[in-house]
Every structure is written in structure tokens, then in C-alpha cells.
Amino acid sequence: MTDVSSFDASTLVRSAVVKLGATAVLELVDGLNLAPSGRVDPKIVLPLQGLRKSRSLESFATKAPLVAVGFIVETLTEEALHRVIEILGDSSEDPSFEELSSAVDELLTSGFDASVVAAMLALASANNVPAETHCRRLLSEREALALSEVSGVAPASLLVERTIDPIIKEQRRVRREAEKRARRDKKEKPLSPSPKVKAPRVSAEPELVLSVPDAVLEVDRRRPLLTPLEEATVTYDAELAGSVIEMDVPYSNLDPENPTEKSKVRPVVVIAAGAQSLLVRALYSEVGLGRVSLPGWNRAGLAHPSFVAAERLNLARSLATGRLFGQISVEDWNQIL
């Protein structure tokens, strides 16, 4: 069996797509709508169109941009990821090896293919989850989950692939330690009853109050590029920027099954903010073309893995419901921007 402890993020993801197999991957690609669209990231669409035509998974795994390969792996392992989070429960953020191993056993016995479970563990390792070491150990020790290293990977000359900065990786480690201490202190602190307070009624144009904890280590937050029209109404350094809030988001197209429905309340990431409007990217619970996985979704106050839409929407501030989920960390912001 192959020891994956030395695999970098790119090798893990590319090996995962090979593990999934040509049958599953090509079936997915054949069912996708890959028509050209200004709203869909061409870094994903063009490589998938090439795979649909060539039918060569080996070529796709070695030559396609990492973002396209990762999209395939995320899509095919999403259900397994949701299930393992349910099994782990309160331990899902940072499980022990025994807990994760037991959850994997339950996945395999409940009908999930070993290739899907292996790809899920590889993708989690590539995303530097707290249980990364446990994921790599399972991939190295279990024969059914073994990965084969993909050779002949083309250099990333045309498209820049995401890498994890050592400083950011260290910050994540320090922050996790701080969160563990905070949870431990909270458990040890005696509880005292507090009076019930009636929740205030949310106004038509709610005021969103944001409290941001001090960062353990200082990392520069990437500045979003705004169009002249956007700069006229919002600013990137607003206090609300980087928050995950709830808004009534209009549909870009009418739903033929529900023609009277024109919008839906959903979480959004605030990119920039102004006195009357907010520049946001909507969040979805399902993978879709152009959407990217939101790292640290649980730290941002969300209850399940979420995916950030590519398109930016300039919405009236009055569409905010007043609910604030949380704040995206600087390193997570820099990965999705």
C-alpha cells in the first residue's frame, strides 16, 4: 500500500479522482450542463468539456487545473461527507482517530463505495482539516482505501493552483488550540441562570452588529477588486465585510415549478458594504458549477458544509433579515475571494 503522508494537496486530489474511476466521473460529467456562460468559471467548464470529449480520466487527472479536478471530487463525495459529519456529531470538527475510523466503517457498511470514502478522506486532507493526520493514516493503512500516486502531472503554467501558505497553516493550528482551551474553560465555568429576555423585533432595515475576535496571528486580508459602479455604492473595508449573514436573495431565473416565487432567504458572504447596499456572494448547501467550497463553514456559524456562488450580487441592505451567522477568518476569506 502507498504511504500518502508525503502527498501534497495537489497529489491527493488528483489521486482521489483516479480512485473514483472513469465510470463514475464520466457519468457525472455527461450529466452536467457545460454550456458556455458568463456566470460559470471557465477554469472548471473548459477542462470538463475536454474530458467529455476525450473520455480520458488519466489525462484529466494529470493535466487539468486543480480547481476542475477538485470540483469533480467534491461533487462525487458530497453525500459521504454529509453522512460522516452526521455520524461524528459533536466530534465532527476535530474527531479522534478511533472516532473517524469507526465513522468510516459505518460508511462502508451502509453502502458507500470504498473509492468514494477514500476520495472524501483525500479531499479533507488536501483542505487541511483538523483530522488531516487521521485521514492520511486511514488512506495509508487500509487496503480498500489505498491511493496510487498520479505521475506526470503537468506544471501549473496557465492557471495558478491554490497552495497553503505555511504561515496560514500555523495560524490554523494555533487557532484550534485556542478554541480547545476556550471550550474547556467554558465547560469548567459554573453556570448561573440568566433572566429571559424577549427578542427585539427586526425592523425593515435592520442594523447588523458585528463583533470580531482578535486574530491569534496577523495575516493580511486580500482586497476584493470592485468595479467603478460597485465602488460608488460599497466599500471593501466596511465592518460588515467578511460576515456571513442572511438575506432575501432574488432568483436570477424564474423557477418553472414555482413561477410565483421570486426570491429565497439564504446565507450570503458579504464582500463589501455601503449605507444602502451590500455586495454579496450567495451560499448554497449543494455543489454547483462555479461554486467553491467554503472552508471553515462551521467556524463561520453555519450548520453544514456550504458552497459559495461565483456571481456577486449588489443587493439593497433592506433585504437583510437581521440574522448574523458569524465571520469568515482571514485565511478562509483569502481562499474564496
Would you write up a description of this structure?
- It is a single chain.
- This protein starts with 8 loop residues before the first helix and ends with a helix.
- The protein has 11 helices and 7 strands.
- Strand 2 and strand 3 (277-284) form a beta hairpin.
- Strands 1, 2, 3, 4, 5, 6 and 7 form a 7-stranded antiparallel β-sheet that branches.
- It is globular.
- Helix 3 packs across helix 5 (66-88).
- By secondary structure, it is an alpha+beta fold.
Strand fraction equals: 5-15%
Global mean pLDDT: 81
User: What oligomeric arrangement do these chains adopt?
Assistant: single chain
Helix tally equals 11
Q: What class, by secondary structure content?
A: alpha+beta
Query: What's the gyration radius in Å?
Result: 21 Å
Largest sheet: 7 strands, antiparallel
Gist?
The protein is α+β, with helices and mostly antiparallel strands and 337 residues long. It is built from eleven helices and seven strands.
Keywords:
337 residues, alpha+beta, seven-stranded antiparallel β-sheet, 7 strands, 40% helix
